[in-house]
Design goal:
Helices cover about 75% and strands about 0% of the residues. By secondary structure, it is mostly helical. It has 2 domains: about 1-55, Arc Repressor Mutant, subunit A (Orthogonal Bundle), CATH 1.10.10; about 65-195, Tetracycline Repressor, domain 2 (Orthogonal Bundle). Helix 2 (about 40-45) crosses helix 3. The longest helix has 28 residues, at about 5-30. The protein is globular.
Length: about 200
């Protein structure tokens, strides 16, 4: 059973990491990826640079913390979707909606991951792991639909890759168009119509 002192330290560490996370996002929003520096984050978090280094050894560890904090809740939402008691087509629509709206909500971080040059191998690896986890969940949804005879018998892994490619392409196109919103409701509807109906006008 943890002592009171250990419990207080754990609570303090959580509070500090939350403050550092918010400070990191503020610095990224103001200076971009190239301007992310440990001293700027420490100043924004109102802690000493030494205190910041007690929690994160370098910028890579800091960014990995940001990735985990931002995207772990999204993965948990994906898991709730696949475990829900609705049909695979409804799960697919819920997944696409959650993915695209999450990209909208976390636009600044998405821009960094998709557009920033010079990302280190640990950051790229961390981002790829998040993407692979999402891809696996989507493939499982498609597999459920195939097994229930609700989707055509395409390979679930390959189909998930194609759908992810389409969604990432949409996100990237909105990022490239600086003055446009990232995602709007009509984008989600068009994606779902394309995924379910395709381009063929024949019955």
């Amino acid at each position: 059973m943890p002592t009171l002192a250990k419990k207080r330290k754990t609570e303090w560490d959580v509070m500090m990491k939350n403050a550092i996370f918010e400070a990191t996002m503020a610095v990224l929003g103001e200076y971009g990826f190239e301007g992310l520096r440990m001293d700027r984050v420490a100043k924004a978090a109102e802690v000493s640079t030494g205190t910041l280094y007690n929690y994160f050894k370098n910028k890579d560890e800091l960014l990995l913390h940001v990735l985990d904090t931002r995207f772990e809740p999204i993965l948990q939402e994906f898991l709730k979707i696949i475990k829900s008691n609705v049909s695979p087509p409804e799960k697919l629509e819920a997944f696409v909606r959650e993915f695209l709206m999450s990209m909208q909500h976390h636009r600044s971080l998405v821009i960094i991951i998709l557009s920033a040059e010079g990302l280190s191998l640990p950051i790229k690896t961390g981002a790829n792991e998040k993407r692979e986890s999402s891809h696996t969940i989507l493939a499982d949804i498609i597999k459920q639909g195939v097994e229930q005879g609700l989707f055509r018998p395409f390979d679930p892994q390959r189909t998930a890759q194609l759908i992810f490619g389409a969604m990432h392409g949409l996100v990237q196109s909105r990022i490239d168009a600086d003055n446009e919103p990232l995602i709007v409701e009509s984008d989600i509807s068009e994606c779902m119509d394309l995924f379910f109906s395709g381009l063929n006008t024949r019955g």
